[in-house]
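As a next step, we paired sequence with structure tokens, yielding the entry below.
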Amino acid sequence: MILDALTVILVSAGLVFFTAGTIGLLRFPDLHSRLHALTKADNLGLGLILLGLMAQVDSFGGAAKLLLVWLFALVAGATNGIALAGRGGDRGGESS
């Protein structure tokens, strides 16, 4: 019962962060602030959702897999953010 309530609270908080990141993506004026809002909010939102799901997992192995999913998503989000930010100043589409 307590774990179910914890799951609902954590997943709901994660959804709030996903929503905030999406609003930041749509509302912020330039590429860098949009990327910042999206990567920070989505990483925290995914972390909260996975923590909520970890409360429902029966084994340590299942929780470890969820943790690995979050770590891979953190690395992928950071890598994509850096790649997009590096190309943001390139207006002509040519590589230097």
Summary: Residues 2-82 form one domain. DSSP finds three helices and no strands in the chain.
